[in-house]
Amino acid sequence: MTMQAMINEWYPVGLFSQLDSAGRTTALMGEPIEVARDADGNAKVTGGDGRVLPVRVRYGHVWSSLGEPKKELFPIPEADQPGRRFVDVGVVRVRCSPLRAVENFLDIAHFPFVHTDILGAEPHTEVQNYKVEIREEEDEVWATQVKFYQPQAAKSASGGITTEYMYRVPAPTCSVLYKTCPPRPSEWDVITLFVQPLAEDLCDVWPWMALFDDETAMTDLIHFQQTIFLQDRSILENQIPRLLPLDPGMEIPTRADLTSIAYRRWLKRHNYTYGAQLVAQ
Q1: Of the residues 1, 100, 223, 226, which has the fewest C-beta atoms closer than 10 A?
Q2: CA nearest 105: which of 233, 237, 238?
Q3: Which Pfam families has this protein been placed in (predicted)?
Q4: Which of 58, 78, 59 is nearest to 189 (CA)?
């Protein structure tokens, strides 16, 4: 089982707002876990063998680890910014590698074909040049200067606009997306993908958003994001192989896949291989 390097990372295991003393049973990297509130109302996570696991509550979610995390959960400064609406989108279960789920989130080229007339539309299919780097100090993958025409970039958008994106991978199964905020052009909307690895080929995906949008009903914001991800799910569950190939020769990348290439390289560098396929079969 290729999980040793990833065992000391933080993973989302539930929405804090939905926890009660009865708790919920779920899994983390193949181990059954129990997520509940204790007598003081604090989140508590228990492993299958009864041991109490590390816990953090951040970005609306409970986070835990089967190991001993060497660093704190990654920061999202916008989560502390006054005036933003924080949207707990819920959970979508996907029969795919948790690493595949993150990589799909980083893929811009599929917008016109999978999210037609929302995040993309033909003939606007070209991915313009953008910049990708592995930032050594933060040890994160970043893609910047990403621009794409979108018929409806956000629930708050009226009409099509060219949207600018920044993508950030701060942890092996998490990604943070910054995109043009239609009501406040000087700010970024923040949309995250927090992925809970249930097994190497099964995951729970917890999207979360921090937006400047005072107009849209919360249920509409949640529905918009769930619509997008359910469109992705059908693609993810049909990808072969189900695990994410890390051998560069196994899948042929294009110029639009620079973020994916950097993400795979970063995973290999850290031996983050739970959910990965290392050699061609």
Answers
A1: 1
A2: 233
A3: VanA_C
A4: 78
Tokens of 187: 């700010």
Task: At 79, give phi and psi (nearest 5°).
Answer: -70, -15
Q: Show the domain range for 252.
A: 77-275
CB within 8 Å of 134: residues ≥ 6 apart: 140, 141, 142, 262, 265, 266
Going by C-alpha positions, the residue among 16, 58, 64 that lies closest to residue 36 is: 16
Sort strands 61-64 and 85-88 into parallel, antiparallel or unpaired. Answer: unpaired
> Are the beta carbons of 247 and 280 closer than 8 angstroms?
yes
Angle, vertex CA 93, rays to CA 89 and CA 95, nearest 5 = 145
- Tell me if 106 is assigned to some domain: yes
Could you give the number of structural domains in the chain? 2
* pTM of the full structure: 0.87
| Token pair for 123 | 């003939």
> Same structural domain for residues 40 and 140?
no
